[in-house]
Amino acid sequence: MTMAKKLPLLAPSIHTFEVNGTYTDCEAKRTVFTAIQKMVSAGKYYRIPYHGSSKKGYSCKRKDGGLTITLAEYPDFRKRYITLSGVNLARIAGDPSRLSLTDLSPEGLAMQEQAFLDELEQLGLLEIEDSVKWKMHRLDITQDFYVKCDPSLMVKIIRYAGSVDPYRKGRALHYNQHNEIRSCKFEKTWYDFALYDKHQQLLNCEKESYPISPDDLKRSKNLVRYEIQLKRPSLKEFEHDKLESKSSKFRFENHALFHYFDKISDDIPLFLYRYAVDYFGKHSWYNVPTALKAVQMSNLDDDTKELVSAYIEAQDEPELTDKIHHKKKIAKALEKLEINDVIIPCRILNDRQCGRFPGAPLCTRVQGL
Q1: What pLDDT sits at residue 59?
Q2: Cα-based distances in Å from 35 to 46, 120, 160
Q3: Which end of the chain is less packed: N or C, by CB atoms within 10 Å?
Q4: Cα–Cα dist 102/227, whole Å
C-alpha cells in the first residue's frame, strides 16, 4: 500500500512590519533627507509616488525590496513623521527569495537585525535616534502551508463563510480586482485577516515586471499564505502585557527589535490559531452531501437528524431562508458532530472541488502550538 505523500511543514513567522517615528527637530529631517538622497544617487533606493495626506511628503523604496521609507511633515501642527513600511528583514539581509520570512531563531534574528541596523545607519536614522519616538505600527504575522488541492478552493471556502452567518465578516476585500478567487481579506479595527494563493501573487508580480526567480515560482505552487496583520491597538495591548517599560521605548540601537520579536515569537502561533477560530470556527468544513451523510450516520435522535438535515439542505438553495427554527439546537448538534456551522453549498463548487470534502479547518494549519 502506497503511503500518502506528506506535505512540508512550515513554521509561523513574521512577513513584514511597519514602524512609525515622530520628531520635531528640523536638523534631524535634514540629516535623514540628505542620507536618503545619497542612497538614491548610489542606485540603492528609488523614489516612488507619495500617497499620504501631508502636502510635504517624500517616499523612497529599496531597490532590492524589503523597505520603504517615507518622510511627512505637518507644519500647522509642528509634527514630522518617519515611516518604515513593508520591512522584510530577510530581504534586507540579502535573501532574494520572495518567499522568505523573518528568521526567529536567536542566531538568525540577530543576523537579520544587524543587517537592518546597518541599513538604518546608511539612511541616517541611527544618528538622530535620540530625537525620534518610535512605535511599532503594524506587524504581519503569517503561516504558509501547502495544500493538495487547488488553493482557490481554500480561498473560496473562506470567502463564502465570511459572507454568511455565523461568521459573517462583511465584504471580502482582495488584492487583485481581476483575480478575486485567489485571495481574500477581511478588515477589523485591531487586525486584518488575509488568505491568498502565494503562487498566483508571484505570477501577478511577474506580470508587473518584478523579478521573480523560477525557484520561487516552483516552490510556491499549492502554497497558501494565511496572514494576520496586527494593527496598533493589538500591538499596544501586547506591548503593555509583555514588554518591560525600557523595551517599550523603542530604540533600534539597543536591539529593541530583537527583544520585541523574541517576545512576540512565542505568541505568534496562538495569535494565528485564535483568530482563525474566531473567524471561521474550529471544526472541519463539509459541503452539503458530506454533511448530510455525517448526520445520517450519527447517533443523533431521529427528530434532530431531520431538523439538521433540513437546515443543511437549505444551504444549497440560491437564496438562504431566514425561516430556520431551532438554530441553537442545530448549532449544538453540529458542534457535537464537529461539523463547521457553515455548510458549503455544492452550487458554488465544481465536481472536483466537491470531492475534496470534508476539509480540515484553517486553525489546524498553524504549526508550533
Answers
A1: 94
A2: 13, 10, 49
A3: N
A4: 14
CA distances 138 to 15, 16, 18, Å, are: 11, 8, 5
Residue type, 237: E
Rounded distance between C-alpha atoms, residue 358 and residue 351, angstroms: 14
- Grid cell at residue 60: 523612497
Helices 198-207, 151-161: axis angle to 10 degrees equals 100
Label residue 135 by pLDDT band (50, 70, 90): very high
Q: Is the dihedral of CA 7, 11, 12, 18 positive or negative?
A: negative
The mean pLDDT of 179-199, rounded to a whole number, is 85
Work out the end-to-end distance of the chain between its first and last CA atoms, rounded to an integer number of angstroms. 32
Q: Which residues pair with residue 74 across a beta bridge?
A: 79
pLDDT of residue 60: 95
Any alpha helices (H) in 104-244, and if so which ranges?
106-122, 151-161, 198-207, 214-219, 232-242
CB atoms within 10 A of CB 129: 18
pTM for the model stands at 0.88
Q: CA separation (Å) from 219 to 15, 145, 146, 200, 216?
A: 17, 11, 10, 12, 5
